[in-house]
């Protein structure tokens, strides 16, 4: 059974077709990248998958369960975790409290021990008692990843998780993602950084103007005419 | 736990112990005037605590909070009328339930929305309740209702102390020491992110609003029996909500001690101004100046003068928009 299956999902805003029949699936423990130019519909797709937006039509299946039109909190409880393109932290709460909050609707047993382990893993010990708003951009992205780790979801959606992050922190993030995949987690990753995409993704979905225009491995995608056209704006014969 | 934090906790416990001892022995050493003053301070602290739940913790501005105080007052007054004759203590939970039902009716449709909708809805609710009390025969219309007289200030002091201390304890345990507190603060800080953690934001907001409505209803019931006469002007005047707002802002919005400090300082200041100047006009000038000073220089209120106090800056946060969407640019 697929960890995630998206079947002919469509979404429009007024006259703008943001998603035009998106269909693809993600196997368990797979890391799939979603790339595409700005405005291609990647974040809209994430918002539909997480319940922040309702699709006009189509179906979304999480571990075989139809979650289309479920409210966001119910989808999250069913095993889907996400990070946001712009870090969405609980700014007045400390780093530790942000991590504890991620567990309030999940497993509360041993929550303080798990939070301490996540803080250590993400090297956030020095700022653990600081409010989230005082963190640097890179630390904020790490904390978002930390919240996801606290919940141990089956499927994680990462929205430009390494954007603007220092190379050292970026390496730390990638190591954590790989380790979680080995432990059984599935990832769907939006990323503009092609180097990072090539480094961790098993497979890549290319979107343009609300459509999937190519699928394949990094090597296959790199030589695909549609991708060249979407990214470089030139036709490749 | 580090040594400075341990020292601070010890100091806090000592101060708390002294305050508790003073409150518990007050009827034995304070005169009748001071006891009434203390009863009023407890009343305003309790009311400010309740407003802090919905605004400071849940992040929604309620401009009609005094309606719940009036509802509690009227329920107690109606149920204690000759011919009905309920026991005073039995009327308090009824007032709390009525306030909770009305809070749910107002909060369910409006707490889904952001911006001014909730503030306008609560203001309209308060005006609606006041109009209803002015015309309905069961509430005595504009003439109000008279309650059975019980001339025992010590009794009402104990009632008010129990209600306010109970409200403080419930707020402290629920909002600062439980999972519910994490949920409420998460929804306040970033609702889309809270939903992404599996938190049912609408449910949490309604629960917080109901909690904030129940407290003034109980206090309103006690106050009605104490003052023995209520009418729409005394129990449902929206100016009373303005006083609550100022008390919480000056004390410290979103801090558990903020309403305690703000309610105590401002009520005592108001009484002192009345003694000094004969009316409370000078107090209104003081309140205006205090609000300006707090917003500019002390956004976390007087509570931020205490060592180790957290900086929330919620007042300034209400001035600028907060996260409402999750859409990105890609």
Automatic annotation (TrEMBL), chain A:
Q: Which SUPFAM superfamilies match?
A: P-loop containing nucleoside triphosphate hydrolases (SSF52540)
Listed InterPro entries:
AAA+_ATPase (IPR003593), ABC_AA/LPS_Transport (IPR051120), ABC_transporter-like_ATP-bd (IPR003439), ABC_transporter-like_CS (IPR017871), BCA_ABC_TP_C (IPR032823), P-loop_NTPase (IPR027417)
The keyword Transport belongs to this UniProt entry's keyword annotation: yes
One example of the protein's molecular function in GO is: ATP binding
Segments traversing the membrane = none
Domain of life where this protein originates = Bacteria
Q: Which Gene3D superfamilies match?
A: P-loop containing nucleotide triphosphate hydrolases
Q: Mention any one GO cellular component term assigned to this protein in its UniProt record.
A: plasma membrane
- Domain ABC transporter: start-end pairs: 4-234
Alphabetically ordered keywords of this record: ATP-binding, Nucleotide-binding, Transport
Protein known as:
Branched-chain amino acid ABC transporter ATP-binding protein
What organism is listed for this UniProt entry?
A: Intrasporangium chromatireducens Q5-1
TrEMBL record, chain B:
List cellular component terms (GO): plasma membrane
Query: Where is it located?
Result: Cell membrane
Q: Which UniProt keywords apply?
A: Cell membrane, Membrane, Transmembrane, Transmembrane helix
For this UniProt entry, which segments traverse the membrane?
A: 12-29, 41-59, 90-111, 155-175, 208-227, 247-269, 281-299
Q: What Gene Ontology molecular function terms does this protein carry?
A: branched-chain amino acid transmembrane transporter activity
Membrane topology listed for this record: Multi-pass membrane protein
InterPro entries from the xrefs?
A: ABC_transp_permease, LivM-like
Family matches, as Pfam families:
BPD_transp_2 (PF02653)
- Protein name (record): ABC transporter permease
Q: Which organism does this sequence originate in?
A: Intrasporangium chromatireducens Q5-1
